[in-house]
Hints:
Order of helices and strands: EHEHEHEHEHHEHHEHEHEHE
Distance between the termini: 27 Å
Helix content: 40-55%
CATH topology of the largest domain: Rossmann fold
Strand order of the largest sheet: 4-3-1-2-9-10
Shape: globular
Bound molecules: D-glutamic acid
Structural class: alpha/beta
Strand content: 15-25%
CATH architecture of the largest domain: 3-Layer(aba) Sandwich
Largest sheet: 6 strands, parallel
Number of strands: 10
Number of domains: 2
Radius of gyration: 18 Å
Amino acid sequence: MSEAPVGVFDSGVGGLSVLREIRARLPHEPLLYVADSGHVPYGEKTPEFIRERSQKIAEFLFEQGAKALVLACNTATAAAVADLRERYPQVPIVGMEPAVKPAAAATRSGVVGVLATTGTLKSAKFAALLDRFANDVRVVTQPCPGLVEQIEAGELATPRTRDLLRGWVEPLLAEGCDTLILGCTHYPFIRPLLRELVPESVSLVDTGAAVARHLQSLLDQHGLRAQGPAGSPRFWSSADPVQLQRVLPLLWGEALPAEALPGKSA
Ligand code: DGL
């Protein structure tokens, strides 16, 4: 059972930023990844829709033998992690949320900016996160509609991506933010571009590495750590798998095959 794979999913390719952290920290774990790119972006969908998709994808990953589940998506976590934990109480399930706690601890100006999807920013989970950790700082939120689509297309540094990003980041800097939270798993892929647009004194924080650490401790608690060696991850997409295959060298760092998510899950 401990040699079984860890199942990871996102609305699209964003979760690959988390998968990279998991592979770096837990190189012996076999990994499965589903990109729900046929339904991206989640950020503009209803919580009900996202719960239904998450449910189908979780079932698919369990059919493939997954011993644990990672929601490599802030938006899906806000909408669906409670429901999944209730349905599968025996399974270690890791979700993720914007890094408000570390950002609140790190800021010196006392103003923190959050770049995330509309769905995450509107969620009750995000409101609770602010309530809990952001009492002593001012938090300025910024939805980024259209950015996920640019990243899905592999447009990490094109003029259009740069223009979009500049339009969101400049008002945050004008508000005095010295810490920016990348509150969507797609956004670490445009970190180099973001770095060019903000002064060096501004910190950029995301939660990919923390998710990998949390997964490690849950696997340890359940006695589920694999001894390896693990092969390459298996990838599925609910859109055209050729599109996923095309961006894997850029976003995963290796050319690997991707399969179509079968039947009822797609
Ligand atoms: N990658 C996702 C997140 O972390 C959502 C992107 C989207 O589909 O809108 O929030």
